[in-house]
Predict the structure of FUN14 family protein.
Amino acid sequence: MLPVLTTSGIVSIIIAFLLGLLIGFLVKKIIQIGLILLAIVIILIAVGYITPQDVINFLHTLSAKLPSVISSTENLKSIIPYTSITFIIGFIIGIIKG
């Protein structure tokens, strides 16, 4: 027997799908930006503007600030409906089509 769909149920399904779509699009763009930054760093090292030690020092500084970023993302984890199948479908479509 199928569950009865109410207006609030349909709205929550649509919102979960749209959130998944937008977050999937955001993740794809972040990965693209990361790859572009990696290419820039490789070119700068090859040309000699920066040294690998400069990159290592930057990564150490970045990793020192990482725990505060992780703690703030824990709050977002409770808001996002990542267990919903409509969210997952929207997320996959957002990554593929983004």
